Amino acid sequence: MHPGPFRYHRAASLEEAAVMLQQLGEDARPLAGGQSLVPLMKLRLAGPTDLVDLAFVPGLSYVRHEDDGGEIRFGALTRHAEIADSGAAARFPILHDCAAGIGDVQVRNRGTIGGSVAEADPSGDWAPVLLTHVTEIRCVGPGGERTVALRDFILDAYTTALGPGELVREIVMRAPPHEDGERIGGAYIAAKRCAQVYATASAAVRLTLAGDVCRDVAIYLGAVALTPVEVTAAAEALRGRALTRETIEAAADAARSGGDPQPDMRGSAEYKCALATALVKRAIEIAARRARGEQVEVSHEYA
Amino acid sequence: MTEEQKTVAKSPGSNRWVGQSVARKEEARLLRGQGKFVDDYRLQGTLHVKFVRSAYAHARIASIDVEQARNAPGVAVVLTGAEVAKLVQPFIEIGPDPGGKILDYPMAVDKVHFQGEPVAAVVAESIEAAEDAAELARVDYESLPAVVDAEEALTDGSVLHPSSGTNLVWQGEFEYGDVDGAFSKAAHVIEIDRLHFHRFSSTPLENNVVIAQWDASDNQIYFWCNNSFPAFAIQFLSPALGVGIDQIHFQSHDIGGSFGIKITNYPYMAVCALASRACGGRPVKWVETRTEHMTASAHGNERTFRDTRVALDGDGVITAIESRHIDDCGAYPRYEPLGCIIWAQVLPGAYRVQNMRIHFSQAVTNKCPVGPNRGYSRMQHLWFLERVIDICGHRLGIPADEMRLRNYIKSSEMPYTTPNGCVYDSGDYAAMQRIAKDLIGWDEWQSKIAEARRQGRLIGIGIGTTLDSGTNNFGQSQIINPRAPYSGQSEGANVKLDIYGEIVVSIGSVPQGQGHETTAAQVVADVLNVHPDMVKVRPGFDTDRNVHTGHSGTYASQFAVTGLSAVHGAAAKLKSELSRLASFALGANEDDLEFGVGTQGPEVKDNKSGKSINYWGLANLVNVNNAGLPPDLDVTLNCRYVYRAPFKVPDIQRKYGNLTLTYAAQLHIAVIEIDRETYIPKILGYVAVDDCGRVVNPAIVRGQVFGATAHGIGAALYEDCRYDEAGNLLASTFSDYIPITALNMPRIRYGHLESPSPFSYNGAKGMGEGGAAPVHTVCAALQDALWSSGVIVKDSHNTADSVFRALSTLGLDRGQGLGARD
Ligand SMILES: Cc1cc2nc3c(=O)[nH]c(=O)nc-3n(C[C@H](O)[C@H](O)[C@H](O)COP(=O)(O)OP(=O)(O)OC[C@H]3O[C@@H](n4cnc5c(N)ncnc54)[C@H](O)[C@@H]3O)c2cc1C
Q: What confidence tier does A303 reach under pLDDT thresholds 50, 70, 90?
């Protein structure tokens, strides 16, 4: 359980890191919290020749949000634990649901949001959550800066739109457009066999309520396909309707066939579909209560 | 009661410390991170091993090319399995033919039999260099069909080990009483086609670690290793390596858990020793990784129970059980086929059933070899019996508590002789049930459950009764193999006064967290009437201390009986020497002497004259100031005592005799609700009641009960060494194998009963294995929750997924896991 030989570099800025990575070639990799990359190296499933450590680049760890609730910016090196403790997470509980439930304490203290989106693990928690909002990835590469919508950023399992040497600088998450008086609520629930294991299935829901009517909604499933799945059929079952037991159940039911999960030790494909349905239902209910101003604490399901 | 089971005289000494929750001596170093584990040893010139392992479950090694690895930087030597085979004899097989013909070498020779089996060892200056070089080894495999199911292994015509010619390791018929008569008179006969106890393991915090040094100058082999039964390991290593037992030195200090899994790490010890010899006697170290541990150390036994028939009378009392049990021991027997008899220590479980016929067989499969995992062989059988009780109870409409009361052996019948001649020393299962029901609030739960079910919730309550038989009689090995040269049970200890009068204790056991240093000190403190802090107990095990016996180790729930009896005997011997010596020194009559602690520490005092002599004075007289000591005062103050358990060799033909000395019991109750949407089983209430006779240290016993309970809940709901059909282990890391963590643990209420054993000097019984009580209990509660839905709990491992599949395929018995009720 020791990685093969590699060279270790520290970058002083992201721009420098991008240049270093480009020059070191395609077997060089940036290192953030190391919580995905290092385990792979220890198992010798990854064997980079060079690691460019981003941890010493100043100014990449922050959570900024404007008080009008419009926009939240996460520095790429912001650790999950910092996000869980941030004011933004207090304000947007879906962020807390996600950040506080990733892995265990050590993983949350080391792992970063930038590393998570760059890793694009099919079972990663951040992507489904961020996708329920309007999220953009600000990248910096040898050719300069660009901004990519998260939905265009994740191309496949473990595959992103990042080009050679290109790095994630910032993640910008915005509440979707809404009218005065409309209220937004979100919730994220994952079912995990235990803390250190990725989700068996997860559901992220963001609702925009006008009174009792669901004016807008986004529902994403995690861990049940190669990339997060937007279940539009489930959203359609709610959009424009009052949230009742029937409409919520209809939405959850529509989510059943949304995924295309692989059977593994976490569960059979059929079970994961059933589980996703249950999680969607719970997440809708909690998101709705939060939209109505209730404080609802969510814990993942551990089993 | 058989004649050999004489009640043992009670201890004459005081009982001041035994029975108290004396703080563990081990804690100070362990909590400060100052424990000394094998990996902490840094020996000059140490080389490091990386094993090249098979990715295949079953394959012929067509060719193996290690030239590049040999030439890689830092590599000292590379040994292939075929090269090692030329240097050693195959390991002893405990069983007779056909299993006895299996050739088990330290590494695969021409064929691999399980995924992860080592095929070569790369030895280098650093572990990194060894790992880099290991990647350069080229092994060509010709894949062979894998057999992962024991029943198939016995019927599909395949042969994993050509030397034996069959996949059958051992089989035998265990028949007692009049089974056919009981069936012909039965009011009810209940049949259960298949039950299955799954594979799981123990995941000790510390994996296997070996340092071996084969010193050419004196042809001695030194091992620093965390093997938990070294007396047994060296008996395997000596003939394999062609050296005398006395040439093998074995040392351990702290061990981060074993649970029996480390008993069979001796193949790795052999490779490290050979590598050391090949490298001119440099120490060779192997530190197992977690993935290696999961794939290729040892798993617990998997067992399938076939064609079970149960005869009951009109009151639901079981009169006969007939069944076929097929045990899966993985690729090599190693400690097996002992498991083919160990279960018979608890043949009828806690029940009075007199007539039993069990055909027991064991097969090899292309999976990791098994090792004696906590609750070894008995838990599989006890789980089977608990399923029988629950399924019969549900069928006949008799509640779980009542069903058990009607069948339990009664406390008035103790000591109770089982149909196969085992003697249950003491116990009161009905009383344990009462305590557990009170603690959980049985009656309130009954009404809450009834109400919840009216609302459509899936909720159930279940009982698990289990026995933790301890201090085994190795004579049972002769039922397996009449030529096996083992019987009885023993443990050794040494108590001495060192030159400055320190009380120093050495024990033959191999503690891995059970607090032996503490309880041994408690016993000595009582004998000598001193404080346990005044007793120094040497940590760990060391052959060179010369206290151990051929049975020494920590396994089979026995330290409280064997270890402490040995310590007690040695302390009593020392006391009698001290008494003679003090009588000379003080000119006193031995009858007037009193042992205690004076102003100058531990001392012996003459009550007549008031004069006393402290331990320093006594030790000084013998060791360094002995001119004038009378020649007939033959004392050494260095006293070894061997405790031998009072056993006979069982009757091999009848498979009859006493197989264990003490029977601790566990009675657990769980309330479980299955979420109707996520299917996740949640434990709403959990009670663990234990009875291990006289308790030597309540805090340690509690710790063992809680640990065993966590382990068992983990096994029931999370931990599963599952293989796919090609023999790939699907749970080789902690992302897929889920050892239980605090997040998954329910709150445990703890209760306790004390039925002293008449067969141990202190009334204690061995404990610590817990008999996998939670596996039985969780299954019982799930069964109760699911009975009305038509599901029968047929597997010891149940997850949200398996509950989901059982409920969604109702009416279609898929023959796996939970099945529909037939
Ligand atoms: C035991 C354990 C349990 C876990 N459980 C969960 C879980 O439940 N849910 C979950 O979501 N995650 C889980 N994780 C993963 C964790 O969230 C990681 O933090 C995350 O996947 C990667 O972040 P990192 O900062 O550690 O990235 P690293 O491991 O350092 O890097 C990951 C990948 O991203 C690249 N990279 C890193 N930063 C950047 C950047 N700024 N720009 C471009 N590329 C970059 C690296 O080169 C590498 O390829 C778990 C990890 C462990 C070890």
A: confident
Q: Which two tokens stand for residue B636?
A: 């050494």
Q: Which residues of B touch A44 (CB under 8 A)?
A: 131, 135
Last residue of a domain, one of B610, B625, B644: B644
Instruction: Tell whether B224 and B368 lie within a shared domain.
Output: no
Q: Are A194 and B679 an interchain contact pair (Cβ–Cβ within 8 Å)?
A: no
Q: With a 6 A CB cut-off, is A170 part of the ligand 1 pocket?
A: no
Band (pLDDT 50/70/90 cuts) for residue B6 is low
pLDDT of residue B822 exceeding 60 = no
What per-residue confidence (pLDDT) applies to B556?
A: 87
Residues B350 and B408 in one domain: yes
State the fold for domain A63-174.
3.30.465
Q: A7-49 belongs to which CATH class?
A: alpha beta
Our mutation pick for probing the ligand 1 site, out of A50, A116, A140, A155, counting the most ligand atoms within 8 A of Cβ, is A116
Could you tell me if residue B151 is inside a domain?
Answer: no
Q: Measuring from atom 37 of ligand 1, which residue has the nearest CA?
A: A115
Are residues B664 and B757 located together in one domain of the fold?
yes
Interface of A with B in 69-98 (CB under 8 A): none
Residue % of chain B over a pLDDT of 70: 97
pLDDT in tens, B221-263: 999 999 999 999 999 999 999 999 999 999 999 999 999 999 9
- Is B157 domain-assigned? no
Please tell me the distance from the alpha carbon of residue B320 to that of residue B311, in angstroms, as a whole number: 5
For the segment A98-125, the average pLDDT, to the nearest whole number, is: 97
Separation of A155 CA from ligand 1 center, angstroms? 17
Interface test with B, best of A106, A271, A280, A298 (most B CBs within 10 A): A271
Domain count, chain B: 3
- Classify domain A183-302 by CATH number: 3.30.390.50
Ligand 1 atom closest to the Cα of residue A46 is 49
Domain boundaries along the sequence of chain A: 7-49, 63-174, 183-302
Interface confidence, given as ipTM, is 0.95
Atom of ligand 1 nearest to the CA of A14: 41
- Residue where the block lists tokens 């995990």: A192
For residue B98, cis peptide bond before it (omega within 30 degrees of 0): yes
Residue B135 has a CB neighbour count (10 Å cut-off) of 15
Give B631-655 pLDDT, tens digit per residue. 999 999 999 999 999 999 999 999 9
Q: Quick one: B319 and B343 in the same domain?
A: yes
How remote is the C-alpha of B394 from its chain's centroid? 32
Ligand 1: atom nearest CA of A199 is 8
Nearest CA to ligand 1 atom 4: A103
SS (H, E, C) B617-682: HHHHHHHCCCCCCCCCCCCCCEEEEEEECCCCCCECCCCECCCEEEEEEEEEEEEEEECCCCCCEE
Tell me the residue range of the domain where B747 lies: 172-201+298-475+650-820
